[in-house]
Amino acid sequence: MATLLKTDRNVALQRHGAVSAEVDARERLIRAGSSDRVVQVPNDVVLSALLPERCNGQPAFSTIRFFANGMSCGGTIRLTRFGSGFEVRVNWLTGGIEIVPHNVL
After folding, report:
1. Alpha carbon 37 to chain centroid distance?
2. How far is it, in rounded angstroms, from Cα 67 to Cα 10?
3. CATH number, domain at 52?
4. How many domains would you assign to the chain?
5. Digitized pLDDT (tens) for each residue of the chain, 105 residues in all
6. In terms of residue numbers, what domain contains 85?
7. 6-11: which pairs have CB atoms within 8 A and are 24 or more residues apart?
């Protein structure tokens, strides 16, 4: 998932244009905006996403958008299983992606 997002960010920089990854929490899918790559989250993993309502003055829907200058509108995708998990965080200012451990218990 983090690799998919990093690739979308890099493609936005290379193409000098916006690229949007789609986060479909209900269907448990993350779709790349720069290719046909899809990440299917297993059924035993709890998926939640904190995404912006608006991005660059427009409705963001369920996307994480990367811009040609490296910035993004940010977002966090949380994956949890058996009381622990990870957050994949996208920094709005830098567009950087980090994976951070997350303990629920």
Report:
1. 13
2. 10
3. 3.55.40.10
4. 1
5. 999 999 999 999 999 999 999 999 999 999 999 999 999 999 999 999 999 999 988 888 899 999 999 999 999 999 999 889 999 999 999 999 999 998 765
6. 2-103
7. 6/97, 7/32, 7/34, 7/35, 7/37, 8/32, 8/33, 8/34, 8/64, 8/66, 9/66, 9/70, 9/72, 9/95, 9/97, 11/35, 11/66
